[in-house]
């Protein structure tokens, strides 16, 4: 078996990977919180999709490959297949999205969360080992069954707990604490699966291995991270804007003042038309205007001038 390094750059990779897992989980929990308060199914689904990209794409997939940048086999080059790498991204986002849709719609229940957690955990495992299959070395990769099974248990439990957080956690403090726990669970699953890996080199070690160099992965990872964060920000801004300028049923608010309580001229007209005949209020009587001092003095002065002339 070949010797492998999991922390080639020291603490940089695990720390950066945990921060990505924490940030993605934090954004995902904020999005699921908005989904719970959404008044329509369409808005709820939109927020859950945003959460799927935040958790599946950011907290899980980006964390995985940032951590893999610190992996090295000194006796063999390490390369990555770009197609399987993209497939692993799709598996992560889709499976997390399915779990969120299951628990995000309908009544909340623990059995439903457990079923969704198992489905999501299996999907996260598929993402992890698909990403590992995308790694090419001059030899074969094997996994120790005990540690591989432990990584599967961690993935399912972590997915179940994460989904329970998405339907129950409220408040900035609790969301931050839940995101921190989710980050630890995601990193724990990854490094447990990496500890199960064994590399058996071929008899004639090849110096040329097909695929992308690990450091070249920084470019797509950076671009994908920026695109994900920008997309999440724009989607959240659009959703917030629509919620601000529409009512709970998705109908645009027209004629409503920003500082009013929902009264509009159209509503007042409709209420007047619906009023029964004979119940309309009569016009308010106008009080007679009393003469002022100036209006009384002017005629008197005109009469006095006429007499003197």
From TrEMBL:
Q: Residues annotated as region Disordered?
A: 269-294
List the Pfam families hit by this protein, alphabetically.
MHYT
TM segment ranges: 15-35, 47-71, 83-103, 115-135, 147-165, 177-197, 217-237
Query: Can you name this protein?
Result: NO-binding membrane sensor protein with MHYT domain
DNA damage as a keyword of this entry, yes or no, is no
Give the species this sequence originates from: Krasilnikovia cinnamomea
Q: Cite the MHYT domain residue spans from the record.
A: 9-200
Choose one Gene Ontology CC annotation of this protein and give it: membrane
> Which of UniProt's keywords are assigned here?
Membrane, Transmembrane, Transmembrane helix
Which InterPro entries does the UniProt entry name for this protein?
A: MHYT_dom (IPR005330)
